[in-house]
Amino acid sequence: MTARLTAREITLRHGDRVVSTGLSLDVPDGAFTAIVGPNACGKSTLLRALVRLLRPTAGHVHLDGRDVGRYPPKALAKQLGFLPQDPQAPEDIKVRQLVRRGRFPHQPLLALWSQGDEEAVADAMAAAGVADLAERPVQQLSGGQRQRVWMAMVLAQRTPCLLLDEPTSFLDITHQYQLLGLLAGLRDEGRTVIAVLHDINQACRFADHLVAMKDGRVVAEGAPADIVDAALIKDVFDLPSVIIPDPVTATPMVVPTLQGE
């Protein structure tokens, strides 16, 4: 396994609270990595550290063997596309204008908007299913529509690596599976995808590499078929379950066995 993006023995804090200590992770290239775990276990914090929005107080995050803190902002943004959990759009901005911002890392000083930029924006909007919303103000859209617009902006960056924090939030089930299928397709094209997901069964179905976190540490990682069993689900989520093959993909499917049912 090769890994351009790595974390080595990092300590992460929110103010005075230590979230993770000595956390290490290799993100496999050209794979779909899903990060799962209970609320407040450090998933989003780890993602923010990987894209340099949160600096470790110890340890290092490296991209191609170089500390991410040493990259100029535009250079890093050409490599890592990031969708946070709750992005905020400027007031009155329209959909096409927001998606066009994904091309900012590729714009030299005083450069004119190119045909390549226009194609990247059009392709991203089509892939995210928001082309028909191009002239709508973002603030007038539903939560699910806004989520897809933000996804289009990240796609317009055309980065080799995408990091997405709960990208299926606010989406109905159809759009959830469409988005996850889109991400799997990007993986198949050779791009690296890292996503925080809440649905363990969706993670098992679409991801090649699963990272299970608890209390700020990685407790298991690997192919879903290799690591997902009832003991792991009980340990990570405190949920009794049985694991059966997904009838469509044969990947692990978690079926809760709560008392009283």
TrEMBL record:
**GO MF annotations, alphabetized:** ATP binding; ATP hydrolysis activity
Which segments cross the bilayer? none
Mostly located where? membrane
Protein name according to UniProt: Fe(3+)-dicitrate ABC transporter ATP-binding protein
Which locations, inside or outside the cell, does it occupy?
Answer: Cell membrane
UniProt-listed Pfam families: ABC_tran
Which Gene Ontology terms describe the biological processes this protein takes part in? Answer: iron ion transport
Q: Which residues form the ABC transporter domain?
A: 5-240
GO cellular component terms attached to this protein's record: plasma membrane
Which key words tag this protein in UniProt?
A: ATP-binding, Cell membrane, Ion transport, Iron, Iron transport, Membrane, Nucleotide-binding, Transport
Q: Give the source lineage, highest ranks first.
A: Bacteria, Bacillati, Actinomycetota, Actinomycetes, Kitasatosporales
Record's keyword annotation contains ATP-binding = yes
Q: Which gene encodes it?
A: fecE
Annotated membrane topology is: Peripheral membrane protein
Instruction: List the InterPro entries.
Output: AAA+_ATPase (IPR003593), ABC_transporter-like_ATP-bd (IPR003439), ABC_transporter-like_CS (IPR017871), P-loop_NTPase (IPR027417), Siderophore_ABC-ATPase (IPR051535)
